[in-house]
Design brief:
The chain is built from two helices and no strands. The chain is 83% helix and 0% strand. The chain is mainly α. The longest helix is centred in the first third of the chain and has 39 residues. It starts with 5 loop residues before the first helix and ends with a helix.
């Protein structure tokens, strides 16, 4: 079994911490886009169109960005 140095262990913990923060980013981004979509719907008069559209845009963009970063960091963990 190879000995793991302290810097390698800290780098591994840092990567896991960054990946776990993405859950908060996705939730906050989704609620923010929901709110902006609701404001646009009230302004234009379209009922849930912008609200749902921006919500799903935020959801897919957040998950896509998370997947991309996880794919690049997979070697560090």
């Amino acid at each position: 079994m190879a000995a793991i140095t302290k810097t390698q262990q800290h780098r591994s913990y840092r990567s896991v911490l960054i990946m776990s923060a993405w859950g908060h980013v996705i939730v906050i981004l989704s609620f923010l886009f929901l709110y902006v979509g609701k404001l646009l719907d009230d302004l234009v008069g379209t009922s849930p169109s912008f609200m749902f559209g921006l919500f799903f845009l935020a959801l897919f963009a957040g998950i896509g960005k998370f997947y991309k970063e996880a794919w690049l960091k997979r070697k560090d963990v």
